Amino acid sequence: MNFLGRKKKEIRIVLVDKEMKSIDWITRQINWKALNFSVYFEILISYFMPFKVDEYEYQVGFPFPFLTIYDKPIIHANLFSTMLIDEFRLAINLLIVYFATILLLKLYKKVKISK
Fold first, then answer.
1. 0.90 exceeded by the pTM?
2. How far is CA 83 from CA 72, 74, 94, in A?
3. Residue 97: exposure state from Cβ atoms within 10 A (0-12, 13-18, ≥19)
4. Which regions of 21-95 does DSSP assign to beta strands (E)?
5. 69, 98, 100, 113 — which has fewest CB within 10 A?
């Protein structure tokens, strides 16, 4: 093999190594218990909060509605054709609840230490 071929392979290995280190750093920074809590909390609270009702649809979710259930079926009386899940709004809701949970945990620790 020539010198240029070896150099290209070394550069590729270094780039993959840096990407793996950044993914490892991100996964270490996430509080997995708080994230798990926020997922369950979002699903549970969305059913206890009042639904947003329009003429033919019900919208479920807090703070932004992420689940839309149509009263009249669009095509057939299939469950999946009468329900729409907006993944972007669900992700935004989960981030809001996650950061609120982290903030409350930090405030709790600060108050607990000051006592």
1. no
2. 10, 10, 20
3. buried
4. 52-53, 57-60, 67-70, 83-85
5. 113
Q: Do 40 and 15 have their domain in common?
A: no
Per-residue pLDDT of the chain (115 residues; tens, 9 = 90+): 555 555 555 555 555 555 556 667 677 788 888 889 999 999 898 888 888 888 888 888 888 899 888 876 556 666 667 788 899 999 999 999 999 999 999 999 999 888 7
Structural domain of residue 3, as residue ranges?
A: 1-30
Could you give the 3-state DSSP secondary structure of residue 18?
helix
The total number of residues written for the chain in this structure: 115
Say yes or no: 54 and 3 in one domain: no
Dist CA 49 CA 63 (whole Å): 10
